[in-house]
Fold this protein.
Amino acid sequence: MELLVFVAASAMVLGGALGVILMRNPVHSALGLVLTLFGVAVHFVALEAHFLAAVQVIVYAGAIVVLFLFVIMLLGVDSAEDLKVDGLTIQRPLAAIIGIGTVAIVSVAVLRTRSTIAAGPALEASGDSNIRLLSRNLFSDQVLAFEITSVLLIVAVAGTVLLTRKQSGPTGARKGS
Amino acid sequence: MLAAIEPTTTWYLLLGAVLFGLGSVGLLVRRNPLVMFMSIELMLNAVNISFVALAVRFGDISGQTAVFFVMVVAAAEVVVGLGIIVSIMRRRPGATADDLAELKG
C-alpha cells in the first residue's frame, strides 16, 4: 500500500514538473505546478507530516499558484512562448548537462550514505500528534526565527505595494518620463 | 510480494534529487520569467521533500520546522518576485529574461 501511494504521488510530482518545464503556455505550466504541489502534499501525508501537508495545499496550491495565475491574467502573457527561438544555441545542451550532472551527483551522494541513513538512531517517538510537536518546537526553540519571519512578511508586502503602485503625482511624472 | 516493499528514506531523497534537477533545467531553459519562478518553486519543494523524509527518519521535528520556514520564505519571495515582474512587464510588454540585459557590463 505504501509502495502504491509512493509510486502514484511520485508520478504526480514528476509529471507535474515535466509539465512545468515543457508546456509552452504559462497557464499550463501553472497547472503542472499545482499537480506537483499536490503530489508533494501526498508524500507529506504518507510521511505523517500532516500539518505540513495541510499548509502545502493551502499556502502553495491555494495562494502561490493563484498568485501566479493572477499575474498571468494581469499581464496577458498567455501567448505561447516560442521555444524554437533560442538566444544561445549552446544553452539547451548545457542546461541538460548541468541538470543530469546535478541529479547524478546528488543521487550518488544519497546512495553512498544509504547505510548511514538506515543505521542511524531514531529518536524515541513521543506519541504526541505531529502538530503538537511542531508547535512546541516552533514556539520554544525557533521562536526568534518565527518573530523575524513576521518582519520578513511585512517588508515583502510593503515592498510589493511600493513596486507595483501606479505612479502618480510629480515624482511619478518624473519617473515615468 | 510487491506489497511488502516499503519506500525507504533513500527513495524520497532520490525523488527530491530528480525534482531538483528538473527544476534547475527548467530555470536554465525557459525564458519566460514566470515559468522560471515556477521552476524555483519546484526546486524548493524538492528540498522540502528531503527535509521531511530525513526528519521523519530520525524522529526530529526540527526538520519539519525548517520546511515551515522554507514555505514562508517562498511565499514572500514569490510576492516580491511577481511584483518586480509586473512592474517590468508594465513598461515592456512581452519581455523575456533575455531582453532584460541593460545592466550587463
